[in-house]
Amino acid sequence: MTVLGRYLEAASRFTAMNSEPAFDEFAAADGTVRQGWSSLLAGLEAFADTDLLQAQREVARLLEDDNVTYTPSPGSMISIADEPNGHGPAATPTELVEAQPWRLDPLPLVLDDREWAGLEAGLVQRAELLDAVMADLYGARRLVARHHIPAAAVFDHDEYLRPLVGSEAASRQRLFLVAADLGRDSTGQWKVISDRTQAPSGAGYTMQNRRVLSRVMPEVYHQANLHRLTPFFQAMRLALVDAAPSAIEDPRVVVLSPGTLSETAFDQAFVASLLGFPLLEGSDLTVRDGRVWMRVLGKLEEVDVILRRVDSTWMDALELRPGSRLGVTGLLECVRQGTVSVLNNLGSGVLENPALMPFLPELCERLLGQSLRLPSVDTWWCGEGAALSHVLSNMDSLVIRPISRGHGRSVRGSALARRQRDLLAEKIKAMPHRFVGQEVLHLSSTPTSEEDRLVPRNVVVRSFAVRSGESYTAMLGGLARVTDDASEGLGVLVTDPNSQLAKDVWVVGSEPVWAPKIVARGRAGDVSGFAPAVSASTAMVPRVLSDLYWFGRYAERAEDLLRLLLATRTTAIETDLHLSQGRALEVMLQAVTHVSTTYPGFFSSQVEMSSEFRSMLLDRHRTGTVAQSLAALSSAAQGVRDQLSEDVWMVLAEIERALGAVAANTTDQGLQLSDVSERVLSGLLALAGIATENMVRDPGWYMLDSGRGLERALQILALLRVTICQERTIDIDAIVLDAVLTAAESIVTFRRRYLARPGVESLLELLVIDPFNPRSVAYQLNRIRTDLRALPNTSPTARPLRLLDSLAERVRTSDPTVLAEPQDGRRPELQDFLVGLHNQLRALSDAIRDHYQQQPPTQRPLFRPDAVGGAA
Amino acid sequence: MTTYRIAHRTTYTYDSDVTGSFGLIHLRPRDLSWQTCVAHEVGIEPEPADLFRHVDLYGNTECYFHVVQPHTRLVVTSTSVVDVEVNDLAADALDLPWEKALPRSRYDDPEAWQTTDFTFPSPYVDVPAAIQDYARPSFPAGRPIGEAAVELMHRIYADFTYKSGSTTLSTKVSDLLNKRSGVCQDYAHFMVAGLRSLGLAGRYVSGYLATRPAPGKPRQAEDAASHAWVGCWIPGAGWLYLDPTNDRIIDDSHTTLAWGRDYGDVPPVKGVIFTEAKKSKMEVSVDMAEV
């Protein structure tokens, strides 16, 4: 019997045994397979039987390769039943949480397109309804004035933004993107559990899930009459362009992200690159002349549409949350002036409001003249006396939700201890209008992989609708989430945003679906669809340039240190054979510590070589290690995800896996360490290759390349300074020079060229002065010059270029013979020369920062008077 | 009727350049049945690149400005001429039992829905349970709203000590319950919280108070200052304005600038600056002369 067959059998047995009716997405009550699944059955059975475990591993690997993550927000873990200070979960909102890998089940949730059509109509209608409600709440406010919506549910909602009420320009803007979390009750009826209107996340994850499944199960994927996601993103792109405030031919649209540490940073970056719009942060934008501009090298460019992933209240430090740096100061005035469209409309979070749910059927009749197609879960708004008593006397069977999301996570009454429940009841009684009670849906189940079996798991689907002309277009698919821990049981899904497993939602037809054949982008295959060009100016935003510059610097730093570690290890092995030359090894070990600034390192008498090497490779919390450079590299890459090829993530994932393997092996004596170092090094070489071969030569690339060149020059100088400024015996020097040249990847040339005089002088010639050796300092200076000159806003007299001129002059006029001349066993002139170059290079780096990566000055309140004062 | 000429000048100085200043000001006296703004002028130095004016949700005039010229000194001046009369509320409206003045109990009143906005906690006015315990004794069942609200004002005036510097903008109503001292904003926020704790609509009013010079003495410039007081909604009659800092119903020495849920909705001047300056200084002068 097949895995799916066993699931089917178990499901019918379960249904027979269970007194409460349950709805399974796959197995119908009569023991047959539901429509939608049936057409895929053969393929799915073969897939599930082949190796379900292998499929799960494959999914995990593909997600890792694309660095698909989700960062749980500690703030969102605090529930409405937690007392402030104590009794709540340990996490505090200030605590930094690491990004978690995105988890996806290989088996999709399949829905028949005829069934979906009904749902789709409901979603579109709901979006139209919410849009109409929004327009009224920020416009005429008739619904509140006439008591169709209770005033308390709006006026005491955290997201009702008074500065925008009555703004004519703002009221012309339609709600752009609406999401709804849907669950199915035991009769099979879909119901909305919550509306998402603030800045809905998940569309990007949905596309990513689809990409992964298309590669894990290509046969099933291609055989299925599967509706594609691409048209949704095309509609989204069109709607963004349409939303521009005036008839501008080619409006500038940007995606505004709160930054790489935000919960759904991946989703934001992925949507931005799918749409082909730049991913920016608040500091990249500024307000001038009553409109919003993007800061690019030496100038400002107009911004017409902002797709925001920042919550409204953070969008303007002047009129909304003081001190916020996530938004754009002065933005509200621009919105009022009608010079920029912000999507979703500022203040749209007021619709994420379960208190509205009981009123939606009537509102739908009133505003759209239609009956509400898609019901919400039964909801009691405690602001009404009868509902309040119902909720208080039925807390055990309800989910208690605050009307504003910021007030805490929802809880199931039955999950609370008696004391917590009493406290919550008191809270509700004190401010009843701030709470609702909601029916706990007996959610439907769907087959989900657990090791080599399929087990039923409860499912919630997030669906999306985007503005399209005068109405909305729904995504033909969605983001499903199942709870993967059977013991958590029902209800977890609606209250706990974490600990979830995603599922792709497949809407399938009985007929082949017309799929537009558009040239694919990247490795993604036919699921990626269109490939709009990202405007080159994104690569000129100072923050982006800074991230790319440091991407180059950290990649080079990690690479150079690895080479040094490997060369030093080779020295160690060789000197083991010639014990008398142990001094050479000491020089190299200390060089490692010096160059990486990981003091005390090898200067400490207790240090053991292989454990120190291990730490240099693996300890990401120790400044100067390979691991730390890699972490910094990865964090720089996060900030410019839309600028980098997806291959970058694959390489970084591979490096992580290599490091993970050696970290797990604590008994390693050094053999695996070398092996892993080689693997990490080849990863870094691949990264350099991607930059050289696959990246468009835009300002971002030049900045990245100049960072690489500058770091390489710094590393060479640092290494030379601590290895060759002292005179040693010929046999020790021979080993040290060998190691230095190996670390500088120039040993082959050196041997070939300087066979006759293999000394310090020759080494200086090759590693510092030779403009043709791609590992020399002189070469880096030329490279940086070429890079900077390719950047806009760079006059020949710009400070970075002047510094470069002086550096190059110093190198060109140096005399290696004189520099290499020892005096009393030392080379003081050489020392001065190298230190001088090193310092000038650092000054150059500062000049590059000031010239190209300048962030705006610090933003602060005009003045925070202790008091206005007053008359007694 | 009294006519005032008011000059309100706020000067900010910094120890190094400010490259951009965004500001939002609420300095235009409102036009009301008992008050007319005859003339009003705003001056900003350096000259702002943008200066826009609009009317907010509560009918206050707001002015947005953006200075882009680097500066170490920013001066915001507002000069207004305003006619003020004593605002007499119909006495019988004040006789309404206070329970009938709760917006949520007045579905019949066309203004009730809007006044609901002033019944909830707001960013600068928390409404802890203890504030209700404080306010409640003034509101026995059925007591006329005017009498009850005035008594609450008397009690706050009696219980509080006026003390500048004892509180900050982040001082909460729950802190004031213990502190029992503060400046006019604190008095106003505290009283607003007391009204809201009972379900009444309480509004924060920003304005000026002209102190009357002692008989025979000329008026001094420092006799005037920014001031704050409280409005309480009286169905059918409008709002009863009470000045708990001075224990009196407002009269023609009070000039109304703007109102909102609390100070945060209507600060005379607020703004955001871009600078690396470490130090800043603010000076305010209000000159209010009868003309």
How would you portray this structure in words?
The complex is a heterodimer of chains A (872) and B (291). Chain A has 29 helices and 22 strands. With 872 residues, chain A is an alpha+beta fold. Chain A has a domain at 536-852. In chain A, strands 3, 4, 5, 17, 18, 19, 20 and 21 form an 8-stranded mixed sheet that branches. In chain A, helix 7 packs across helix 10 (265-275), helix 16 runs antiparallel to helix 21 and helix 16 runs parallel beside helix 22. Chain B is of the alpha+beta class. Chain B has 2 domains: 2-84 and 268-290, Immunoglobulin-like (Sandwich); 91-263, Roll (C8orf32 fold). Helix content of chain B is 18%, strand content 41%. In chain B, a hairpin with a 3-residue loop joins strand 9 and strand 10 (238-243). Chain B is globular and about 60 Å long. Chains A and B meet through helix 5, helix 11 and strand 22 of A and strand 1, strand 3, helix 6, strand 9 and strand 13 of B.
